[in-house]
Amino acid sequence: MALAAATAETWGITGTTFLPAYLLIAATVGAAGICTRRTLAEPGAARPIDDITARLHDVAYLAGGGELAVWSALCAMRLRGTLFAAEGTVRAVGRLDPDADVLEKAIHATAGSAVAHRRLMFHRSVRPALAEIEERLVAAGYLLSDERRRRIRRVGFWMLGVAALGLVRVLADIAEARSVGLLVTVLLIVTVTAVTQIALAPRRSRRGNRALVALRDQHRALAPEREPDWQSHGPTGAALRVGLFGAGALAAFASGRVREIAPQVATAGDAGSDRSRRQRRRDGGSGGGGSGGCAATAG
């Protein structure tokens, strides 16, 4: 009788039976979780936007959030002559058109005196303009609302339940002095998957991702490797280029003005940093941050 008790399997299920069953449960729950997260990341658009580029800096916000939207606005304003940039600060100059973009108006009002461009997005008058862009993109289905993102994260608790089952089995096996090596390995994978799903949720919807891919393909002529003429594209094209290809695209707008922006781009790790460093070596010397062109915006 004692021998039979000692050899009884945990929960009456052998380890060789439990492990495949546990793997099947984890795979099933994982696949269901992935499908559910993908479905939640494709919300219906409550208010569709026919052309996202109609709002100059919405593309930049969609691609990189408030910081990139501010870079887009600074670039457009610099080319319009409504902003002066030097040594990491910007200052409003001139007057804006009455129909100027709301974000540009907010930045112009904030920069009445010199202000660090990297702090602009945190200023009281700029935050509402950025919030307006976000609300518009959420309503159009390009960005996910906070509630939708919470729902996506909660899907991770399904896998966390699977991890809890595995942990209970591991503890039970340890109490019976049974081998748990393979089960612990699987349990770690399941736990990491659960924690990752709970911690992470996409900011853009799948519709937003498709929109960016389509816009980058449509405006491939603005890509940094094409070295487009920033003067011919004007403020609108410059802002769109920053939105689609990142702040690093600033470095290729005007070769003589790369010197001021290049350190910031290199720090950010954007794609244009290598190009800017090569250009600095060719140009030599140093240039003033207040020279014309979009690149001086980041000065």
From TrEMBL:
Residues covered by region (Disordered): 265-299
UniProt keyword list: Membrane, Transmembrane, Transmembrane helix
InterPro entries in UniProt: Ser/Gly_Cys_C_dom
Domain of life: Bacteria
Ranges annotated as spanning the membrane: 155-174, 180-200
NCBIfam families given in the database record: near_uncomplex
Protein name from the UniProt record: Uncharacterized protein (TIGR04222 family)
Species name: Pseudonocardia cypriaca
